[in-house]
Specification:
alpha/beta, Trna Endonuclease, Chain: A, domain 1, DNA polymerase, domain 1, 3 domains, two-stranded antiparallel sheet, 13 helices
């Protein structure tokens, strides 16, 4: 059995079943997923990086299955391509919150008791309450959010809560800490202790960012192969970060919002509609 190098730089045994399950979760049928898993297994060599295995799998999915399946398989990569700065991730998550029924406002300046804070996302719902959302974007899959980030975020929340008592700002019902990678064990433990909601790529199980994106089909625009760096910048500037938002527009509307040519807009919209409807 081959040993591969994961995103953290550690050796681990190659897991054929993981390739199989991920292909099927992305939408490939059992037969196609089995064939791809077998082919990947035959190509894997000791010391190969999981990033290289991902690339091989994506190529096979695009060749043997519909391109939309490959796009769903590469969701984590699509989220990573929102970088290198964190602003696009904040904009993306604000759109996710709006799709969940919240009124989400980006990068709000709010006065606490001691300090003035820039809140990444202020999310408010008449039924669920008003929340401070801190987004922590990481450029590398192996990075994680440690307990220091959790402590810092909760300290800011406390300053806002005390500021509310002092009449300096509105009330916040809770605080969310969201990342595109993962949390350390201590960060998870602290968040549970303080009642702080955390959401990582695969954490917590049953309510993670990846599960939310897949279940609600909240795919980022970077999942679309027709979206190059120019189009991504134009879409992000216009606050359009979800394929679902693109799919709702006409080519004329997308051109007017972003300055992308109508022909390019038509291609992007067609791919977005295929992905969101599949």
């Amino acid at each position: 059995m081959a040993f591969v190098i994961n995103a953290q730089g550690k050796r681990e045994e190659f897991d054929r079943g993981k390739v199989l399950r991920t292909c099927m979760r992305a939408g490939a049928d059992r037969l196609a997923a089995e064939k791809i898993a077998d082919e990947i297994s035959s190509r894997v060599r000791d010391g190969m990086g999981t990033k290289q295995i991902l690339k091989m799998t994506l190529n096979l999915l695009s060749e043997k299955v519909e391109p939309e399946v490959a796009a769903r398989y590469d969701l984590k990569g699509a989220i990573m391509r929102l970088g290198p700065a964190g602003f696009a991730f904040e904009t993306f998550f604000a759109e996710v919150m709006r799709e969940l029924g919240y009124d989400a406002k980006l990068r709000q300046i709010v006065q606490g008791l001691c300090l003035t804070h820039e809140i990444d996302v202020v999310a408010e719902s008449p039924k669920l309450g008003r929340f401070m959302v801190e987004c922590k974007y990481r450029n590398f899959a192996g990075d994680y959010i440690g307990v220091k980030d959790a402590l810092y975020t909760y300290a800011r929340f406390i300053d806002l809560a005390e500021g509310c008592i002092g009449g300096k700002c509105g009330h916040f019902d809770g605080v969310w800490l969201v990342t595109n990678t993962k949390f350390s064990g201590d960060a998870e433990k602290y968040a549970r202790c303080k009642g702080m909601k955390i959401m990582g790529w695969r954490q917590p199980q049953g309510a993670s960012l990846s599960e939310l994106v897949e279940e609600k089909k909240l795919y980022p625009i970077t999942a679309l192969r027709s979206v190059d760096s120019f189009a991504q910048k134009r879409l992000a500037t216009a606050g359009i970060m979800l394929c679902r938002s693109v799919a709702r527009l006409s080519a004329d509307d997308l051109r007017d919002h972003t300055g992308i040519s109508k022909k390019k807009a038509e291609t992007i919209i067609e791919e977005a509609r295929r992905l969101c409807s599949s």
